[in-house]
Each structure stands twice: as C-alpha cells, then as structure tokens.
Write a structure and sequence with these properties.
Elements lengths: L9 E5 L4 H12 L3 E6 L2 H13 L6 E5 L5 H15 L4 E4 L5 E3 L7 H26 L5 E6 L12 H21 L4 E8 L5 H4 L3 H11 L8 H12 L10 E4 L23 E5 L8 E4 L2
Parallel strand pairs: 1-2, 1-4, 2-3, 4-6, 6-7, 7-8
Antiparallel strand pairs: 5-9, 9-10
Helix pairs in contact: 1-8, 3-4, 4-5
C-alpha cells in the first residue's frame, strides 16, 4: 500500500461484518488502514474476512466476535487492535439491531433494555475503551452511528429513535470532554440506507417508498455512509468534533414523514416485539389484536 488517506492508521469497526460497517471496512482498507472488525455474528465475520482476503487485504484485517453491550468484549476488541497492529487511531461504533418495535404501551421492558444496551450502551463502552487508549497516544477519531431518527420524531420505531437520540447527545458531550486529549467524537446519521436491516427482504417495496419521500433520486447505499465516515476518520475533518452528520439524500430537508419509511409498515403498528438485524438471532415479534 503506497498511499491513502488512512495510511497505517489502526481502526476498529463494530458491526463491521455487514452493511454500513462492512462497506466502511472496505473503504478504510482501500485507504491504507489496518482494521479490526467486531461483530456479534461469527458466520458473517468469517464471510467478511474471506471476501476481504480475496480483495488482497488479508494481512491488514482481522475479526473478533463480540457483544458490544458487554464491557469485557468491547475492552478485548480494542486491546486486540492495539496488540495486533500496535495502535488505535479510529473507532467506528456502528453495531446495531432493529430493536423494540410496536406501540409504547405494548413494548416489553426487556426489549427496550436490549435496544438501549446495543445501540447506546455499546456506543458508551466503545468510546470509553477507545478513549482510554487514545488519550495516551496523542488523540484519535471516534465516530458513532446514530440516525435521522435520533434528530426528528415520527421516523422510526420509538425505542430505536430514542436510543439514537441518546447517541447524538452522548457524542456531543463526549466531544467536549475529550477535546483536550485531541480525541474527536462525531455522530453519523444515516437516512434510508439499503441494507438487509432496513428493507428486511422487501427491497422493491422499500424503493417505492423512498422514491416518494426522498428528494435525491438515487437510493442510499452503504458506501455513501462509508464515504462520510472516512471523512470524519481522516485528517480532512481535523477541526470537526461534536457534530451529527446526516447522510440521507435530503430526507430531513424534505419535511420528514409523509409516508412511513419502513416497507410494509403502517403508521399505527399492528405488531410488537424486537428485531435483531444481522446478528443471526431470530426476531421475536407478535401480532396485536
């Protein structure tokens, strides 16, 4: 690797085996980074490593299976990157699940807690253990995945949106606290990005919905978000911290919700439960009477 915007920078990406995380891993590697991927789904992690090895990045990437809601797993993930590659410059706290769905009055508290454990506690733990390393190494860049649902109401299920709003607030406060150590902390707020977590196998339906509510004519793809994360990870954003960057094709600018963005969903949900995205766990959803 002769050059690149992240030449020999060491990066950790949670939820890096699929979707936005995997697209970002590929982009980071192409820009010269050394990448440790963390993911709950071990099979997806193995597949990701195989594809990256086929692309010629085998010596520059490794995979650790872990649960971002568990502190020991997050600490081990950061330590692995430090031990394997000799540093830690960039952390992308991206792991996520669909989380609790359905009306508030039908939401199980256990599903609410799991949603916040992955989406918010996971980000807190990622920042905590990244910062512990970075503050003794002259700084770094931390990027946390939030959502347009975290900055506006009526976009996504309530538990998911509330957790993502917490990520935005936490990122801003962490940025002010860690600035003296030259650690930048920013949030990325994707809009409707075409991943399996988003369309749940209903890709054609999702495209029709997006065409009605998103001004930009092209659909959002993981690589669009990866490009924004690359900017926040690189020295190009050296004076940017505490920000929440929307990558949404103008969705927020369009006045938000005219049609519910989830394919097949109704404005008033007739189901409740929890979905686990690409973790490999079976969703637990029930129809409401």
């Amino acid at each position: 690797m002769s050059g690149g915007r992240l030449l020999n920078k060491v990066a950790v990406i949670t939820g890096g085996a699929s979707g936005i995380g995997f697209a970002t891993a590929k982009r980071f590697l192409a820009e010269g980074a050394l990448v440790t991927i963390g993911d709950f789904n071990a099979e997806a992690g193995k597949a990701a490593l195989a594809q990256l090895a086929a692309d010629g990045f085998g010596e520059r990437v490794n995979f650790i299976r872990g649960d971002v809601s568990q502190e020991a797993d997050v600490e081990r993930l950061m330590a692995t990157a430090l031990d394997r590659f000799g540093g830690l410059d960039i952390v992308f706290n991206n792991a996520g699940i669909g989380g609790a769905i359905g009306p508030i009055v039908e939401t199980d508290v256990e599903h609410w807690d799991v949603t916040f454990a992955v989406l918010m506690r996971g980000v807190f733990l990622g920042v905590k253990h990244a910062a512990r390393i970075m503050m003794h190494r002259g700084g770094g860049s931390i990027i946390n995945t939030a959502s347009i649902g975290g900055v506006a109401g009526g976009v996504l299920p309530t538990a998911y949106s509330a957790a993502k709003a917490a990520v935005v607030s936490f990122s801003r406060n962490a940025a002010t606290e860690l600035a003296e150590y030259r650690i930048r902390v920013n949030a990325i707020c994707p809009g409707i990005i075409f991943t399996p977590l988003m369309h749940n196998g209903r890709e054609t339906q999702a495209e029709a919905v997006v065409a009605d509510i998103q001004p930009w004519p092209d659909r959002g793809e993981p690589h669009h978000v990866a490009s924004a994360v690359l900017y926040l990870a690189s020295d190009d954003s050296a004076f940017v911290t505490g920000e929440a960057h929307a990558v949404d094709g103008g969705y927020l600018a369009n006045g938000l919700l005219r049609v519910h963005p989830l394919p097949g969903a109704k404005k008033k949900a007739d189901y409740a439960g929890i979905t686990y995205g690409n973790t490999g766990q079976i969703r637990d959803v029930r129809r409401l009477p």
